[in-house]
Design a protein that fits this description.
Number of strands: 9
Order of helices and strands: EHEHEHEHEHEHHEEEHHHHHH
Number of helices: 13
Strand content: 15-25%
Distance between the termini: 59 Å
CATH topology of the largest domain: Rossmann fold
Number of domains: 2
Helix content: 25-40%
Shape: elongated
CATH class of the largest domain: Alpha Beta
Length: 267
Amino acid sequence: MPSKPKLGQNFLHDSAAIERIIAALGDISTSTVIEIGPGRGALTERLITRAHHLIAIELDTELAAALQAQFPPDKLTVVRQDVLTFDFPAASTAAGHKLAVIGNLPYYITSPILLKLAANSPSLDRAVLMMQREVADRVCAAPSTRDFGLLSVTAQSYGPVESLFTLPPSAFSPPPEVHSSVIRWRFSPRFAALAVDESPFLRFARSAFAQKRKTLSNNLRAAGFPPASIASAFAAADINPASRAEALSIETLAAVFKNLPSPIESD
């Protein structure tokens, strides 16, 4: 396999960690699994013995060719493509079921990949993902903690997320400058239960967290909502007018959202 990473990859080589990551997916004997960024195949070679079929999405030309040559095509399909352009619904339709996803996410595009998975949640069952610890902390954060913010609300709106374990730089080659954490994300969008429409609620969340140091009320005023409407929504949701968005649960944020006028009405 190629010895030098070209796209900033940090290849996992800790055997015990590899086993824990794959085990976190659960039974995949009847599943089509999508592996994001397989690299040199550390996860791949164990996944293909357990999954019904594995689709490896690898952007690096040399790594993709090496994977294709190393593993049998009846067990592994290598797709040389940017994961951000991959057609998850088509893969799910071809498989006849929702997909499981696994991968060591590149640090520089972790958030876009998470948003890509969220947008394709109807085609996905669960994901076990490794990423920079600081990002994982934000994804899994609870309200009223330092790391709770827009990424937390966005990810958790699509289903429960849990942090599983953290790995030191020495588990990788070359070792990164940061620790990495593994999370499990079970896709079960909450918008219907919250009685909110997906896109408008997420736009509201972006406004709510636009300036972290500001109160929710100030952020909403900056987004163009009338002060009287904000006060009325806060009263209906029974929250303190001085609250910041990070202190509120997703349920409470949804209650505020439902009591605000639409952006058109607020003009």
